[in-house]
Every structure is written in C-alpha cells, then in structure tokens.
Specification:
four-stranded mixed sheet, 11 helices
C-alpha cells in the first residue's frame, strides 16, 4: 500500500496541479526509491538548533551580486557580508541545503545551480570547516536528480560529502506550530552551521518557492500535510529553521510551470545571487526576481509580522554587475 506520508507526495501533488502526468509519475517512482532503503531512528523528538552567528549591527542583512559567472556572484555577495569566515569557523561541520528535487538539467532551472553550490563548498572549507555536507530529499529518483542537476559532481569536486536520500537518517523533530509526527534529516540537527540555498522558481500553490519553501527538502514523513495551509506552514518553517546564511540562486529563474518546469521557454536568465542573514529579506529579493512584490506573497507577509525579518528591498546591498 502506498504510504500517504512519503515526502514524494508533497511535490507530486504540485506536479499534478500542473497537469504534468509524466512528471507526476516520475515523482511517484522517485519518491518510492527515496525511502526504500531508508534508515529510521526511534528517538525523542530532536530540537532544531539555531545556526545563526552574531554579527555587527552595521553588517548588511543581505547583498546581491550580478554577472555571468555564478561562482563570482557567490563570492562577491558573501564577501559583502563579511566573508565566509564570519559565519564558518575552524573545525565546524557545515550542511549546505540546495534544491535538488527534480530530474532536470541546470538549464531548466528546477534545481539550484551547481556552480553556486560548489563555490559555497569551497568558501566553507577555506574558512576552516572540518566537513561540508551537501544534501536534499529529492522527489524524482535521487541518483538522477543529483547527477543531472550537476550538483553531485560539482560539490564533490569542490570537496563536499554528497549525501543522496538513501544515505540519510531521519529523526523525529520538534517543530512547534506544525503538524505532529514530522521528522527531519539527522545530519541537519547535528550540523554546526547550515546554509540554505534555494533556487528562485514559480510555484503553483504559493506563487514562489524560495528559502522558506526549501526547508521541505529536509523533512520526511508527514510533510505533505503542510500543503493544506501552505502559506502559514511556510512562515512556521521560517520561524523554526534559522540558518547561518540564506543564499538565493537567481542564475536562472523558472518563471512559470514551477516547481517542476521542463521547458526552456519557462526559464529566464537573470545572472544574480543574493546572500543574507535575514531570510525574510532574502525571500523578498527572490520574489522580486520573478516580478512579484513581497506583499503579494502571504507567507512573506506572515513571516514579517512574526518578527522573523523585514521584506524591505531597500535593505539589500546591490553590488551591481561584475
């Protein structure tokens, strides 16, 4: 019998809403593969750590860089915040969480750009990280997602430990405000620092999938229930997961038919990356790359009302084009 709480259902439902029957079928089979060999840990619900680091009040909350090279954009944006050494310290374990949900090529903009991920790995290791883990719970066949996205090869070449879903351990998690019985990737609970790296995409349910939505990829059974009130759930995720950095990939953006995409006609080259410590501001910036005002996204408004950050784009330090 099909398990109604498998993570694949969440994204499959989104695909079905787009009437993409072939994609939905792939999501079903991929989701089954994700947890066929899944190792579950029976334990008390784990608290979600706070991975933020204190910074001077004068530090910008977010910075955005533009240009043709994604790695250069990452370096410039992170440098404007004080450099990776301000966030990652000697001997720490860093988990980088891109979007690797779909069996798509980088040109199709359904996953985070591999060069963005690889540059973040290099910066973390140069700052003294003991280990950098790159992972996500894919929707389609994880082997194909990690390979076709280019992220597995790029991250490994940069020095990361790349973990597909079959190698992950899931633990019960304490997620206040969300459905009971949820679980998360154990590696994220154990990490010293976490960098959230969403790609900017249209989404059929919440208009845009950005940083707060990207947390779906660290949750296991039960996350499909969050779609019942997705905007509130996204704000709750923003309140629960407090990353060291959010790095928003707008190298290419999927302007319609998201989150799955497929057609190159749905992709627009933007050539930009933003990095920040304010996840609400980062999502507001990402929305702007889709032509959406922050106030048009209920989850961004909700997160701002909760005091999780500010959606004022004037706070983003625009570095211009390299």
């Amino acid at each position: 019998m099909t398990d109604p709480y498998r993570p694949s259902i969440t994204r499959r439902e989104a695909a079905l809403r787009l009437s993409a029957a072939a994609v939905a079928a792939a999501a079903v089979s991929g989701g089954a593969l994700v947890f066929h060999n899944r190792r579950s840990v029976v334990a008390a619900a784990a608290p979600i750590p706070d991975w933020r680091v204190p910074l001077p009040a004068s530090a910008p909350k977010a910075a955005a860089a533009r240009g043709s090279d994604p790695g250069t954009n990452v370096r410039r944006a992170v440098a404007a915040l004080g450099g990776m050494e301000s966030f990652v310290h000697q001997g720490e374990v860093v988990l980088i969480k891109p979007n690797i949900g779909w069996d798509r090529l980088p040109e199709q903009a359904a996953n985070t750009d591999p060069q963005v991920v690889a540059e973040l790995v290099r910066l973390c290791l140069a700052a003294g990280a003991k280990k950098v883990i790159v992972t996500d719970i894919s929707c389609n066949d994880p082997r194909r997602c990690f390979a076709r996205s280019g992220i597995a090869a790029a991250a490994a070449a940069a020095g990361a430990e790349v973990l597909e879903a079959q190698r992950l351990r899931m633990v019960p998690a304490a997620l206040p405000g969300l459905s009971a019985g949820l679980e998360v990737v154990e590696e994220i609970v154990r990490a010293d620092r976490v960098i959230n790296v969403p790609v900017v995409k249209h989404h059929s349910l919440c208009k845009a999938t950005l940083g707060m939505k990207n947390w779906f990829g660290v949750m296991g059974r039960g996350r499909n229930r969050l779609h019942q009130d997705i905007n509130r759930a996204l704000a709750e995720l923003g309140a629960t997961f407090r990353p060291t950095l959010t790095v928003v990939d707008a190298t290419r953006v999927l302007v319609t038919n998201g989150p799955v995409g497929g057609s190159l006609a749905d992709v627009r080259a933007v050539g930009a990356v933003a990095a920040g410590t304010d996840p609400v501001l980062c999502d507001a910036w990402g929305a702007a790359q889709l032509g959406l005002a922050p106030g048009s996204l209920p989850f961004v408004e909700d997160a701002e009302r909760r005091g999780l950050g500010r959606a004022d784009l004037a706070l983003v330090k625009e570095l211009g084009t390299s």
